[in-house]
Amino acid sequence: MIKIAGAGLSGLTCALNLAKFGEEVLVHEKCKELGDKHGYNILAFKNYDLKDDVIKELKESGVEGLYLYPIYKIKKFSPSFDSYDLYSKRPLFYTVVRGKVKESIEQNLYKSCIGEGVEIVFGKALSEEDATVVATGGKRPSVVGCGATFKDINMEKNTIYLFYDNQYAPGGYIYIAPYINSATICLVCFDNKYFSKVRIFFERLLVENKIILDIIHEATRVHSFLGFADYSIPKVYKNGRYYVGEAAGFLEPSKGFGMRYAFISGFLAARAIAKNEDYDMLWRNYFGKELNEGTKLRKRLQQMTNKDYENLIQRFKRTSNIKDYAEDKRLLVSESKNQKTAMIVQRMVS
User: Fold this and answer.
1) Distant-in-sequence, close-in-space partners of 86: CB < 8 Å, separation ≥ 6
2) What is the pLDDT of residues 183-195, one digit of tens each?
3) DSSP state string for 134-172
4) How far apart are CA 187 and CA 217, in angstroms?
5) Which residues pair with 242 in a beta bridge?
6) Are 143 and 256 in contact (CB under 8 A)?
7) Chain centroid to CA 93
């Protein structure tokens, strides 16, 4: 029997695929209920700049039937509220619900696992030493997020809002991710000098940001949260154990996204176990390049001042489509091959 420590996204995805491969699987989850960690939270899958739609990736990872809300527009704001809108006919993101509610991705995965005969035990932790697969999340805070979910919000449909402002989110950003008539507002901080202050920054943000004030004016706050995520040099296989999701350090460093890597790493670990393949080679071939580029972009973003953000929004305004937008972002991490590129990069980050 294969034992998995943790019933989060990566652990359940791994269990589901192992069961489909014909393996007997037991999952241990220390929380007493599925989705305890997230309560009611809305997160997003990035869909732009991918070769295939993320829905196809999820299906290939054995995950189907998720409740996905398409995002066709991004509204980006500088500290002075200068803004840039990007629209696409193809979804730029898909938002999903996390937590205990019936439409959450945890509930979907749980039902699929039970249907495949996976045994899941709640309220009982499994030590790493006794596990074949470790899916217990990150161990240290590389990024801290503080936020709240609101119902009956007043904002554009199928649109994500992003704010850059070091006064509230040092080294990070603020996002508003909608799901039908609800939305999660979250402040993401990458500067560890301010991790202890993010809750204060967030509450100030809600009363001082004029755009957010208008969005939540008649809304109801239904859930608040404070959490951290961990990205590091991946530890994927050690002493006969496979590490997946954040337990392996799989997190996109520039924005802190981890859901997509949780699903994919869970599937790849199951494949490595069931088919005796090289797990390290599988993940490196699939998204190793993405993680390296994200690490470079994170280093650039850490240097950004509010003045740089104002210039960044001005630059984005000169882009007319998603291809140009993605290319502009790559300039931040490119290894300058000529003087023109070097001057652009220097102007953006110095």
Assistant:
1) 73, 74, 76, 92, 316, 319, 322, 325
2) 999 999 999 999 9
3) E----SS-SEEEEEEEEES--S-TTEEEEE--TTTSTTS
4) 18
5) 133, 237
6) yes
7) 11
Closest CA to 176 of 206, 134, 141, 204: 206
| DSSP H/E element including 260 | helix 259-275
Output the DSSP codes for 21-87: TT--EEEEESSSSTTTTTSEEEEEEE-TT-SS-HHHHHHHTT------EEE-EEEEE-TT--EEEEE
**C-alpha atoms less than 13 angstroms from C-alpha of 156 in its C-beta half-sphere:** 13
In this structure, the chain runs to a length of 350
CA–CA distance from 39 to each of 56, 160, 184, 225, 278 (Å)? 27, 21, 12, 8, 36
Mind listing the pLDDT tens digit for each residue in 55-72? 999 999 999 989 999 999
* DSSP letter assigned to residue 130: G
Q: Beta strand 143-151 with 159-163: parallel, antiparallel or unpaired?
A: unpaired
**Which residues fall within 8 angstroms of residue 122, CB to CB, at 6 or more apart?**
7, 29, 31, 32, 33, 34
> Which structure tokens are listed for 38?
């997230």
pTM of the predicted model as reported, rounded to 2 decimal places: 0.89
Cβ atoms of residues 146 and 291 within 8 Å:
no
Identify residue 212 by its one-letter amino acid code: I
- The predicted structure's pLDDT at residue 327: 57
Q: What are phi and psi of 89, to 5 degrees?
A: -75, -30
Ramachandran class of 31: left when φ > 0, alpha when ψ lies in -120 to 50, beta otherwise: beta
Q: Report all structural domains of the chain as residue ranges with CATH numbers, in order of start.
A: 2-38+55-63+101-139+230-295 (3.50.50.60), 299-349 (no CATH)
Q: Which tokens in the block code for residue 70?
A: 């398409």
Q: Which of 335, 312, 252, 246 is nearest to 76 (CA)?
A: 312
Q: Tokens 């008539």 label which residue?
A: 181
294 and 252 Cβ atoms separated by less than 8 Å: yes
Residue tagged 């190793």 (tokens): 288
Residues 6 or more apart in contact with residue 334 via CB below 8 angstroms: 341, 345
Write the single-letter amino acid at 164. Answer: Y
